[in-house]
Amino acid sequence: xxxISTDLxxxxxxxxxxxxxxxxxxxxxxxxxxxxxxxxxxxxxxKSGTAFWHTWHPRGREELNSPEFKAELQQVVxxxxxxxxxxxxxxxxxxYENGGKIPGGWSQNYGYVVETEHYEYxxxxxxxxxxYQAYLSCYDLNEQKINHAYxxxxxxxxxxxxxxxxxxxxxxxxxxxxxELPHEATAGFRFRTITQDPAVxxxxxxxxxxxxxxxxxxxxxxYNLAPSEEMQMGGM
Length: 236
What we know:
By secondary structure, the protein is an alpha+beta fold. The protein has helices at about 30-35, 65-80, 90-100, 140-145, 170-180, 185, 200-210; strands spanning about 10-15, 35-45, 55-60, 100, 110-115, 120-125, 135-140, 155-160, 165, 190-195, 230-235.
């Protein structure tokens, strides 16, 4: 994985997994509230591929769009402007080098996640001319904790009809995947594992492997997330 770093304090950027796609697209007001959505920045590089036009679209309560959030959002965008958001050709190169393919959209989209102490930023890239090329969805992590009575989220599931559900119970989350995954093609079922608990992450993969008649050869220790495997982006 490509690593980009500076001497400034760093925040991490990681490629999205296909099951995380729901967080990168527009959702219902109820889903936005549950996820602590603040808003979305829509961006494009213009006809030349080198301009930078952007528009803010609110998705949550106005008080979530605080001065502290606005200052951090500016820092995140400014830093991403040095790489993936520099221009259209830079975006194409970044997506080619770093993966992050997610389903949805009329062309191949790519997702990248930036998580700071209080916020999560989900950058969806559409590196083709003639359309908006980037959408940065912003979420308040503290609001998510409040919505779930301080129970950490285990995972989320989404369906093609717009239905979605969030889980704080690992067993219920795994049971849902086990029940719905065989109908993925017809129901448009997508899941996003949020917890970093290696036992849960392995159990999810075990279900996927089993569906295709294969065995997951990774051990639970293999699911401990190592910071060195993630891209490093300079912060401000």
